[in-house]
Amino acid sequence: MAVTCLELRHRDGITPILVGRGALQQAARELEDWLADRRVFVVTSPRVRQLQGRAIERFVGGAAVTQILEVAEGEAAKSLQTAEGLWRRMLVDQGKRDSRLVAFGGGSVGDLAGFVAGAFLRGVEYVHVPTTLLAQVDASIGGKTGVNLPEAKNSVGLLYHPRATVCDTELLTTLPVRELRSGLFEIVKIAVVSDADLFRRLEDDLGSLMSGDPELLGEVVGAAAAAKIRIVERDPTELGQRKLLNFGHTLAHALEAALSYEELRHGEAVGYGMLFALELAVERGLLEGEAERVRRLVGGLGLPSLPFLSPEGVFLRLQRDKKSRESGLIWVLPVAIGEGAFFSDFTPTEIAAKVADFLPNS
Ligand SMILES: NC(=O)c1ccc[n+]([C@@H]2O[C@H](COP(=O)([O-])OP(=O)(O)OC[C@H]3O[C@@H](n4cnc5c(N)ncnc54)[C@H](O)[C@@H]3O)[C@@H](O)[C@H]2O)c1
Ligand SMILES: [Zn+2]
Q1: Catalytic residue (one of 21, 181, 249, 317)
Q2: Phi and psi for 257 in degrees, rounded to 5?
Q3: Atom 6, ligand 1: which residue's CA is nearest?
Q4: Residue 246 annotated to the active site
Q5: Closest-lying ligand to the alpha carbon of 264?
Q6: What's the CA gap between 337 and 288, in Å, rounded?
Q7: What is the chain's alpha carbon radius of gyration, rounded to the nearest angstrom?
Q8: Catalytic residue, candidates 21, 201, 253, 354
Q9: Alpha-carbon dihedral sign for residues 261, 262, 265, 270
Q10: For 7-19, how does the pLDDT look when each residue is reduced to its tens digit (9 = 90+)?
């Protein structure tokens, strides 16, 4: 498959998003002028550097000076201390307003590095190179960047769009299967609420996708990214339609918090969240026979079993969800495959009972 070039239109311009096997090579050519004569800071993690070091070197080969800045892998990278450490290193190392930054890693590296780029000297240009499936279809699209505070995840950040996003599915060949699956759950999510064709594609090709075929992944990442772009363009500031992307996330956030972000990968928590939302949809008489198709697809990806969790504890965390309103929680539910809608008429008693039914009881 040729590399596909998508575009995200936003308040500050247009971000090209190159998707597919070989996208990195093509992007290096297209960004030749952007890199030439510049100092380029590459933010990455030790694991990604070890596994994909040659790809990093090839990508930034055209820069005048390249500096690799390593941060801890995973969520630990998303802290103000890490951001401050990077800003100070960049100052000491002659970083200027026209220096460049490349975020080369999973969603954590991307969120941190985008934030670092957006605030350094009030903004240096950056390019996203997401290296996990989740980051390619979700975290790197839409311009949201940020770090965590001890009190809450993603509580400090900027909307700051990259110069380009490069989703090369060849980079996913070193990804552990659990991370690949975690990303596939997010693809199922976007398919259920906005793209029936993509949903059918996932049903047909799930086995090959789970084996990590870069060609096939390229096509599916392209479709999922295009679906996210359509939603983000309609609602750049997340006032309405963009909340469709929260399908499965209300319960997911509560489960992740109850498990201290340790036992489930984010996508797996979304998998459980989608199954829960499906129960609510069926209760409202939505979806009819189609609910089973969603259950089958989510089940086909394989979810690790949930440990015992107190239903009251999970319910309390649901109530605290930042997306909740005075009047109660808003649920994104599928009304058909490929179409989501918002529902806010579930009573707390109803939800508490559903949570208790849903969780394993020993
Ligand atoms: N900005 C947004 O709109 C947005 C949307 C969704 C999620 N996010 C954020 O994304 C983060 C999660 O991202 P993630 O799931 O990519 O997790 P992650 O960044 O923690 O990466 C997961 C693991 O994969 C490893 N890894 C990355 N690339 C690899 C590769 N090519 N080969 C082998 N290992 C590799 C990492 O070292 C890490 O251990 C969260 O912090 C979440 O808040 C942001
Ligand atoms: Zn998510």
Answers
A1: 249
A2: -65, -40
A3: 139
A4: yes
A5: 1
A6: 10
A7: 20
A8: 253
A9: negative
A10: 999 999 999 999 9
Cβ atoms of 92 and 59 closer than 8 Å: no
pLDDT for position 322: 55
Dist. CA 176–CA 188, nearest whole Å: 19
Give the pLDDT confidence score for residue 211 in this predicted structure. 95
Residue 161 among the catalytic residues? no
- Closest among 53, 58, 56, 123 to 95, alpha carbons compared: 123
User: What would the two tokens of residue 217 be?
Assistant: 């992944």
Instruction: State mean pLDDT over 213-221.
Output: 95
**Contact, 225 vs 141, CB < 8 A?**
yes
Element (H, E) at 165: strand 164-167
Residues 145/103, Cβ–Cβ less than 8 Å? no
* CA 274–ligand 1 middle distance (angstroms): 20
CA separation for the pair 63, 65 (Å, rounded): 6
Angstrom CA distances, 117 to 45, 95, 127, 182, 188, stand at: 16, 11, 10, 27, 31
Ligand 1 pocket, Cβ-based, cut-off 6 angstroms: 45, 47-48, 51-52, 73-75, 78, 105-109, 111, 131-132, 134-135, 138-139, 142, 144, 154, 171, 174-175, 179, 182, 266
How far separated are the first and last CA of the chain, in Å rounded? Answer: 48
User: 17 in helix, strand or coil?
Assistant: strand
C-alpha 63/C-alpha 137 separation (Å) is: 27
For the segment 281-336, what is each residue's pLDDT rounded down to a tens digit?
Answer: 999 999 988 999 999 999 999 999 999 999 999 999 998 875 556 556 899 999 99
Tokens read off for 46:
């030790």
Q: Which two tokens stand for residue 321?
A: 């969800």
